[in-house]
């Protein structure tokens, strides 16, 4: 532990705790999960880490950094820390079957992560609920890649226990092969577990378990799940890997497209609520500036600690439904008492370390996280529609447009992704009426719009930093000082202006996304109506 701590500290990381998954450490107030690997120099492994460090995806845990301790022959991999816990923990907490939309939603997010890493030429090698995590705001992230776990064997059977074998595909045992299709099977096993709270395949011994996976009865789902949903799972758990759908084909299923459309709409609505709360922060702070707190603290020596506590409480009022106003009341009381005993440095430290600042930053991070996720979801819908049209229509090279519908290709494609007759008919109707090119352009625009949001959010983060550092006894002086030169000297009002400017920019981004979402028609099927009823 001493050597490990020394190595991490040398790289700027302070150990906070140890978990089964690695070491939790902090650096510059951010928290990370660091995995420690005892491996020899492995060019393939190093190359994989370098690829992972380049991937930025809302459903893949970011690999931030990596470094080696040559003396200890140890390799450290630094990843984002997920405060929402693992899927395995959530399954234990649930204690009941998931609704179809929730189970499908998590599976779609897993599928998008798998498609991304498969396109990069990588394999996960250990896809289990223990290696799937959630951010603080509930976004699913895939982590625990096999080689980061310490395994360098492609079939991964020499280094895993029954907990991974439960999710292993038949071809791993019969043909000793492991590829992208094997991970689709693992995802199917997880989907079954989400719906039943039980393993798709289980047995008393490893030998019996393997036998069940190879030739045992197909696991069924409870009656509450739709036949189309059950058919999709059955195709994912097809024992013939050649007939098993790819991640792209699963994302092209009508259920999946409908799920992503609904997720985009509901998330945009949630972001609008958060944005309204952000504006309420500015309104509350302006009221503080114009008289509420000033009146309470007027006259004589101003209690700096009380003033700061009041302001911090009022900032959070919109996010905590008024709970922080209790803090405000305490702050005002201290201020009236005139306790100007704390030094500027103590006040700054108090505010910087407060949970209030973390709460504000959490709201901003959630906005950034989810707006990027919506952009990716819209891109996935566009990609899926383009793939379906490409599979089922022949191309007229003279005008570079889709022309003849290929009945034979359509007949092969539908069953590949578990489409029943109703879904095939509905999807065919959709392809006939929608402008795929326009949707593709809109989806690409969504990605660019999300990038604009990142700039506004970065500016707001900077404003938060400046505000909390500058909020000391000098602030009260600036509040009471007249603006003879017409410039805003109060840090409170500077912060208010920053919030409102960022909110206006983010509103523009959100309005663009809403417009793009409305341009993508939903598949009109009964499952969407049922999902709306569940909400």
TrEMBL record:
Domain Protein kinase: 1-256
Coiled-coil boundaries: none
Keyword field: Kinase, Membrane, Transferase, Transmembrane, Transmembrane helix
Molecular function (Gene Ontology), one example: ATP binding
Residues annotated as transmembrane: 452-471
GO process annotations (BP): lipid transport; lipoprotein metabolic process
Superkingdom of this protein's organism: Eukaryota
One GO CC term, this protein: extracellular region
Pfam families xref list: ApoL, Pkinase
Kinase keyword on record: yes
Entry similarity comment: Belongs to the apolipoprotein L family.
Protein name: Calcium/calmodulin-dependent protein kinase type 1D-like
Organism of provenance: Scomber scombrus (Atlantic mackerel)
């Amino acid at each position: 532990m001493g050597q490990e701590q020394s190595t991490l500290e040398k790289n700027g990381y302070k150990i906070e705790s140890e978990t089964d998954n690695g070491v939790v450490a902090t650096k510059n107030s951010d928290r990370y999960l660091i995995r420690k690997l005892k491996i020899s120099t492995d060019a393939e492994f190093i190359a994989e880490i370098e690829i992972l460090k380049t991937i930025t995806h809302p459903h893949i845990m970011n690999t931030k950094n990596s470094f080696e301790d040559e003396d200890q022959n140890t390799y450290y991999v630094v990843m984002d820390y997920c405060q929402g816990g693992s899927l395995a923990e959530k399954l234990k907490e649930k204690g009941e079957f998931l609704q179809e939309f929730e189970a499908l939603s998590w599976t779609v997010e897993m599928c998008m992560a798998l498609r991304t890493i498969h396109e990069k030429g990588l394999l996960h090698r250990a896809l289990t609920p223990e290696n799937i995590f959630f951010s603080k705001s509930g976004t699913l992230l895939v982590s625990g890649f096999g080689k980061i776990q310490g395994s360098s064997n492609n079939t991964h059977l020499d280094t895993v226990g029954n907990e991974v074998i439960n999710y292993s595909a038949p071809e791993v045992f019969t043909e000793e092969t492991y590829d992208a299709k094997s991970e689709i099977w693992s995802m199917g096993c997880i989907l079954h577990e989400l719906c039943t709270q039980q393993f798709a395949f289980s047995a008393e011994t490893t030998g019996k378990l393997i036998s069940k996976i190879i030739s045992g009865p197909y696991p069924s789902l409870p009656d509450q799940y739709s036949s189309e949903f059950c058919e999709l799972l059955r195709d994912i758990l097809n024992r013939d890997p050649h007939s098993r759908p790819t991640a792209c084909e699963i994302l092209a299923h009508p259920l999946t497209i409908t799920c992503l459309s609904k997720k985009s709409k509901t998330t945009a609505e949630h972001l609008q609520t958060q944005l309204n709360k952000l504006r309420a922060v500015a309104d509350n702070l302006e009221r503080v500036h114009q008289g509420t707190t000033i009146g309470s603290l007027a006259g004589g020596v101003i209690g700096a600690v009380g003033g700061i506590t009041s302001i911090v409480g009022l900032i959070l009022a919109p996010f905590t439904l008024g709970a922080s106003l209790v803090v405000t009341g305490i702050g005002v009381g201290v201020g009236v008492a005139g306790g100007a005993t704390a030094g500027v440095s103590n006040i700054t430290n108090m505010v910087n370390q407060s949970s209030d600042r973390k709460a504000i930053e959490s709201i901003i991070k959630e906005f950034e996280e989810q707006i990027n996720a919506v952009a990716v979801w819209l891109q996935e819908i566009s990609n899926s529609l383009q793939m379906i049209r490409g599979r089922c229509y022949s191309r007229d090279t003279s005008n570079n447009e889709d022309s003849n519908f290929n009945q034979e290709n359509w007949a092969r494609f539908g069953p590949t992704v578990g489409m029943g007759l109703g879904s095939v008919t509905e999807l065919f109707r959709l392809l006939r009426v929608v402008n795929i090119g326009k949707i593709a352009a809109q989806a690409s625009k969504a990605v660019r719009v999300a990038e604009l949001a990142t700039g506004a959010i970065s500016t707001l983060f900077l404003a938060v930093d400046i505000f909390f550092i500058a909020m000391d006894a000098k602030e009260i002086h600036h509040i009471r000082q007249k603006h003879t030169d017409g410039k805003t000297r109060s840090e409170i009002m500077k912060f208010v202006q920053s919030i409102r400017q960022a909110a206006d920019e983010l509103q523009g981004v959100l309005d663009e996304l809403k417009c793009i979402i409305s341009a993508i028609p939903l598949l009109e099927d009964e499952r969407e109506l049922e999902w709306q009823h569940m909400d």
